[in-house]
């Protein structure tokens, strides 16, 4: 992890003329700017909200749009603080995101995970600027993106692309003229130098379809929500590795004769290291369980 860590003082980081990386190494947010408007894609966790606000203020930007990519805790618990600071910003979300955060089981987990993530950053010397979240984010007034939609920022078009496989209410962002794709977790969890760990939590087949879409879009720069972007040959290699690892995990689960509880622990021990240890063990064990369940449901012949 230390070999790939991007120092805090390197943020904000200009990726292209229209896209700037905000946040920190662990939680990446992307400011997309045109001549008239700007959009913040990803909203991170509560523990980095004040850092992101400082970065935006240093750039002299008040975003016109706030866009949580999907309603998992590490992508949406920063939204309340950002929405409070930028009350005129319109919140854009995908269908299913609001229903997910208001589910009786989801809310307490979001809040617990946000608290743990902030504590994890604090242990690493990255001090949160505020207490962790106490109430679930409110998406009731957000504009729901029904299908592929282009947001005109003034000379820059941000295309929002609803995708499936990882999470309900999942969006990717694309700035076509700069060949940059804001893929969030749709390629998996980014372990720099070691590829992507698959995250097909709602469906293996639809997740693979999303990977096919990412490959066909052929971006020059891919921007996952964690641990920094990949450019050029590294981007194409990352996409290919994500596809290969996803297929490998599916084959492994289908071929395994282990009881699911033992297979869960195998996947957990394999993945719970380095950047993944910022999250609760319970969360990553549940992620491993979902991978097994979705892999067993996958019916296509490989």
Describe the structure.
The two termini are 33 Å apart. It is built from 9 helices and 15 strands. The strands form 3 sheets. It has a 7-stranded mixed beta sheet, covered by helices on one side. Strands 8-9-10-11-14-15 form a 6-stranded mixed beta sheet, covered by helices on one side. The chain has a two-stranded antiparallel ribbon with strand order 12-13. The model has no long low-confidence stretch (mean pLDDT 96). With 302 residues, it is an alpha/beta fold. The radius of gyration is 18 Å and the shape is globular. Helix 6 packs antiparallel against helix 7 (233-255) and helix 7 packs across helix 9 (281-297). It has one domain: Ribonuclease Z/Hydroxyacylglutathione hydrolase-like (Metallo-beta-lactamase, Chain A, 4-Layer Sandwich), CATH 3.60.15.
State the helix count: 9
What overall form do the CA principal axes indicate?
A: globular
**Any idea what the CATH architecture is?**
4-Layer Sandwich
Helices and strands: which structural class?
A: alpha/beta
Q: Which fold does the CATH topology refer to? A: Metallo-beta-lactamase, Chain A
Number of strands: 15
Detail the poorly predicted runs.
none
What is the CATH first-level class name?
Answer: Alpha Beta
Tell me the major beta sheet: 7 strands, mixed
N- and C-termini, Cα separation = 33 Å
Largest sheet, order of strands side by side?
Answer: 1-2-3-4-5-6-7
